[in-house]
Automatic annotation (TrEMBL):
Subcellular location: Endoplasmic reticulum lumen
SUPFAM superfamilies given in the database record: Actin-like ATPase domain, Heat shock protein 70kD (HSP70), C-terminal subdomain
Main subcellular location of this protein, as a coarse class: endoplasmic reticulum
Bias-annotated ranges (Low complexity): 860-872
Name of this chain's protein: Hypoxia up-regulated 1
Organism, scientific name: Kwoniella dendrophila CBS 6074
Signal peptide location: 1-20
Domain of life according to the entry: Eukaryota
Length: 950
């Protein structure tokens, strides 16, 4: 199959997997960037709560409240005991960093897992930790942060859509991350119920971003002719520096012989990676060390080294000073009340910093030389060096880099967006996986940074494309019922190169996975073919860790040991989406089944077609992670429950705060209105004195109460307090609103009465005329029967009479009250509205009634038939009339369209637009609505004040 066929086929398969949003996360040791791929959301970086484009990678607590990003960083000096920065280097790791990065250093459990203390952890965390010394694993701390990232992304809602949860992510990780580290990240995502579509190298992310806007030379994969472009991504971050060498090229082919346009694919292929455990934090800690020693020398206060708050202040100042020294030769240091109320002031120069870290400077250039060596390339082959990461702006890093590039910076690519490139690249990758966006074809290939061995046998060599599989063929054990396979990871040292600690450490063989295949004996009994052997398919997951795809009992046919060359990169990642069914019954029981069936099965059936007789019996197997173990199912359940308990607390808190803010705002508004010099006089004019006093006193009391209970009162209590005051305010507000709307309502009511009267007069006249004509008609010359029945006209008359009586009576009383605004109204705008509207509806219906036609002249017969017609019409029961016509039938009347309505203008002399207002408007604001058009300039009262709610 041609490569692009595979690609498009896979995209089809993939389509259902990516429905809506995919969040790209570039999680850094110090800062994290996010980008959301979602139809309707502009493609950009996701901003945090403070509208920052980069988010501090930290979680902390301010007493009971979990905080993130800049807020968490700010809280470090006040709450150093619940401050957890730099989680990334501890994921899937046991190296307690030598750097003083963690105010609360983690301890190691008996089975080799790092775990952080959380002293005085909030009581809402459930299940509550049994000891404050062992609360959060690095994975759990990452999961906290991921919940925040997800929250930020979920609040990006395109107009007119409803919020929807995000459950798919694409993440970047250091490409040298090993089995443990990748597993730990995956666990953190799973704790939040997120599916990891792809885990790509940070350098790969930058490369994708770089490739999006460029074209590359053509290369013919089949005949190996053409050109490739080689670039180095040099990424110097907070804690590590990585150089990734990639080749970029384009392939172009015609899908069929007749095709006129070629299909072009951009290939991005990782060739090699070099890295060192050195980054910008080295400078932070060095500055902190210099400052601490200087402070002790000047003040004699040695105890500062055990004061967490003072150290947090020093660490913050060190970071500030570092940035100043990147641009200046010297920086001032100033910390108020650093320790025991002693202020600290000093100066530090770039030169003194550089000499303090001198021995580490070559480490910044080493990744480049090491990556070139393992790719077998020289600097001359390199097109350009693309910088990424904040630390590349530090002068000594730039110097070191320049020395690795032969003393010149000619090759350093200019004007490439450095800090956001990885997350944007990852987002592009997500878009490429989705069919919602039109993207260029991409083929990304990443490689294993490690040798994966079984005993001495190399299973996947360092540099193997991620996504590849390998089948191991093993003899059926003669005595036992099971086989156990142990796998390790290591790198090999490049001979002739001087190596660093990092490299030597990587070269040590470490256990990663143990696979136990069981119940073999029974399966053998069922096996009828000759030469039974056990075949285990191992997979180098596109996300970079080792797993078992399946284990079967089958016949030993020739060439049984083979490697299926699955496509790496995009294709591999796609494969990872579907995974293998059998992955599920592997290691951890609690993991939500993320992977679906299965493209493997498609492949399998094809294989079986080729060799139809080959019998295969699936074998049970169990994966166990050795070395640094990932979280167990039990740990995951506990952590997940804790995360949920925090989420519950936070949403209750949010609701509570909202209720409190509403109450607070309400109290301020009321006390403003009650104050003597209030501009808006509503509460003064319309409240009786006692009412005002009562209101004032309850407002004062509630304010005082709120002062004491703002932080503790629950949502219900807060809402209750507000309701109590509203009960007192309501009659006053009603008076005010009534007085505001009454003149308009009366005017409108009178208009309706006036129009109805005109109608009645005219209609009666017409009817009388018509009846007269009817009485004179002959069969040869029939007359038009009257349009209205007597009952219909009677109904209008009755309604008008009733209205008049009602109005006269109430108006007399209302007029007496007119000077006293504090008395409750007698006549309600709403009632006027209803009655007027009902009358108008009755009249409108009659006006719009179809006029009767002149009956056909009957030439020879008697006149009786014509009279009969008339009487039928009069009796016609389908002619609605009387009180049954209410406003509620309004919308059911077919003939009350806009046109017919405007034809009724004659009934309403002042009317300029359609008579009836939109229904929604009527219900929206009852008090302000009239049933006569708003165009009537009837309103004489004061302009409504702007405080509708009062
Ligand atoms: C991607 O490119 C590699 C060669 O670098 C090729 O072997 C593979 O088939 C391609 N995959 C797809 C899906 O095009
Ligand atoms: C593919 O690349 C060839 C050669 O670079 C170019 O001529 C052609 O226009 C490209 N096709 C598309 C569809 O971009
Ligand atoms: C399978 O057969 C080959 C050659 O026929 C033999 O060398 C190999 O040892 C056999 N493998 C097993 C596991 O029996
Ligand atoms: C062997 O075959 C029998 C009958 O088909 C079946 O019930 C049993 O589960 C099989 N055993 C194994 C280990 O596959
Ligand atoms: C009365 O008759 C005149 C002339 O036919 C007509 O224009 C008018 O609309 C009628 N009035 C009513 C209220 O039906």
């Amino acid at each position: 199959m041609r490569p692009s066929h595979i690609f498009s086929l896979l995209l089809l398969l993939l389509a259902p997997a990516i429905q809506a949003a995919v969040l790209a996360i570039d999680y850094g040791a110090e800062f994290t960037k996010l980008s959301l791929i979602k139809p309707g959301v502009p493609f950009d970086v996701v901003l945090d709560k403070d509208s920052k484009r980069k988010i501090s990678s930290v979680v902390g607590w301010k007493r009971d409240d979990r905080v993130f990003g800049a807020e968490a960083k700010m809280a470090a000096t006040r709450f150093p005991d619940a401050h957890f920065p730099y989680v990334k280097p501890l994921l899937g790791s046991t190296s307690q960093h030598q750097l003083p990065l963690h105010p609360n250093p983690p301890s190691m459990t008996n089975d080799g897992v790092l775990i952080f203390p959380h002293s005085s952890a909030p009581s809402h965390i459930s299940p509550s930790p049994s000891s404050s010394e062992e609360v959060w694993t690095p994975t759990a701390l990452l999961a906290h942060q991921i919940s925040y990232y997800r929250h930020l992304a979920e609040s990006l809602i395109p107009d007119g859509t409803t919020p929807e949860p995000i459950n798919q992510v694409i993440v970047t990780v250091p490409s040298w991350w090993d089995h443990y580290q990748r597993k730990a990240y995956k666990d953190a995502l799973e704790l939040q119920g997120l599916t990891c579509l792809a885990m790509i190298g940070e350098g790969t992310g930058v490369a994708l971003n770089y490739a999006m806007t460029r074209t590359f030379p053509n290369f013919n994969l089949e005949i190996g002719e053409g050109e490739k472009e080689y670039n180095i991504i040099y990424d110097s971050g907070a804690l590590s520096t990585t150089a990734t060498i990639l080749s970029f090229y384009q392939t172009s082919y015609f899908p069929t012989k007749k095709s006129k346009t070629s299909i072009n694919t951009t290939h991005i292929e990782v060739l090699s990676v070099g890295y060192e455990n050195v980054g910008g934090v080295l400078l932070d800690t060095e500055i902190q060390k210099i400052l601490t020693e200087d402070f002790i020398k000047k003040s004699g206060q040695k105890d500062i080294i055990s004061d967490k708050r003072a150290l947090a202040k020093l660490s913050r100042e060190a970071n500030r000073v570092k940035h100043i020294l990147s641009a200046n030769q010297e920086a001032n240091v100033a910390i108020e009340s650093l320790f025991n109320d002693v202020d600290y002031r000093s100066k530090i120069s770039r030169a003194s910093l550089e000499s303090a870290v001198e021995s580490s400077i070559p480490l910044f250039s080493h990744p480049i030389t090491s990556a070139l060596a393992s790719a077998g390339l020289t600097l001359n082959d390199i097109n350009s060096v693309i910088l990424f990461g904040g630390n590349t702006r530090v002068p000594l890093v730039q110097q070191s880099l320049k020395s690795a590039l032969g003393g010149t910076d000619d090759k350093i690519a200019q004007n490439v967006n450095t800090d956001e490139a990885a997350v944007l690249g990852a987002a592009y990758y997500g878009a490429a996986l989705s069919r919602t966006f039109k993207m260029k074809n991409l083929n990304v290939t990443e490689r294993s940074f490690y040798d994966i061995k079984m005993g001495d046998e190399v299973i996947f060599e360092q540099g193997t494309k991620l996504g590849e599989r390998k089948i191991l063929t093993l003899p059926v054990p003669s005595a036992e019922d099971e086989i156990t396979l142990e796998f390790t990871q290591s790198t090999h040292l490049i001979s002739g190169q001087s190596t660093t600690i990092t490299e030597r450490n990587q070269a040590i063989s470490k256990p990663i996975l143990s696979v136990k295949i069981s119940d073999i004996e029974n399966s053998v009994k069922n096996f009828t073919n000759p030469l039974p052997v056990v075949q285990v398919t191992l997979r180098l997951d596109p996300r970079g860790y080792l797993s078992v795809a399946n284990a079967v009992l089958t016949s030993n046919s020739t060439g049984s040991e083979e490697t299926t060359k699955d496509a790496g990169g995009v294709a591999g990642a796609l494969k990872g989406l579907f995974g293998s069914k059998k992955d599920k019954d592997s290691s951890d029981d609690s993991v939500p089944a993320e992977e679906n069936p299965t493209e493997d099965e498609v492949v399998d059936t094809k294989e079986e077609k080729k060799q139809p007789k080959k019998q295969k019996i699936a074998l049970k197997f169990k994966e166990k992670h050795t070395g640094i173990r990932p979280m167990t199912g039990e740990e995951k359940r506990t952590t997940q429950a804790r995360l949920r308990s925090i989420a519950t607390y936070e949403s209750a808190k949010f609701a509570r705060e909202e209720a409190r803010n509403l109450l607070e705002g309400y109290l301020y508004r009321l006390s403003g209105l009650l104050s003597e010099d209030a501009e808006n006089r509503a509460l003064h004019d319309f409240a009786k004195k006692e009412e005002r006093i009562t209101l004032q006193s309850i407002v004062d009391k509630t304010m005082e109460w709120l002062g004491d209970h703002a932080e503790t009162a629950d949502e219900e209590t807060l809402k209750g307090k507000r309701a109590d005051i509203e009960k007192i305010e309501l009659p006053i507000i009603t008076r005010f609103k009534e007085s505001l709307h009454r003149p308009k309502a009366i005017e409108a009511f009178q208009q309706a009465m006036f129009s109805s009267r005109s109608f009645l007069v005219e209609a009666t006249k017409n009817n009388t005329e018509a009846l007269e004509n009817v009485s004179k008609q002959t069969p040869e010359n029939p007359a038009i029967p009257p349009k209205y029945t007597e009952e219909e006209l009677k109904d209008v008359e009755t309604q008008m009479k009733e209205n008049e009586l009602w109005m006269d009576d109430l108006m007399k009383k209302q007029v007496l009250l007119e000077d006293d605004l504090t008395s409750d109204p007698v006549i309600w705008a709403d009632d006027l509205d209803k009655k007027g509207k009902k009358l108008q509806m009755t009249v409108l219906r009659l006006i719009n009634k179809k006029a009767p036609r002149r009956p056909k002249p009957v030439i020879s017969s008697s006149s009786s038939s014509a009279t009969a017609t008339t009487s039928t019409r009069l009796a016609n029961p389908t002619n609605h009339h009387g009180p049954s016509v209410t406003e509620s039938t309004h919308s059911e009347l077919p003939d009350l369209s806009e046109e017919t309505l405007s034809s009724t203008t004659l009934a309403n002399p002042t009317h300029k637009g359609p008579v009836l207002e939109d229904k929604t408007q009527e219900t929206g604001d009852k008090m302000g609505t009239t049933y006569i058009s708003k165009a009537i300039p009837t309103h004489k009262g004061p302009e409504p004040p702007k405080h509708q709610e009062l």
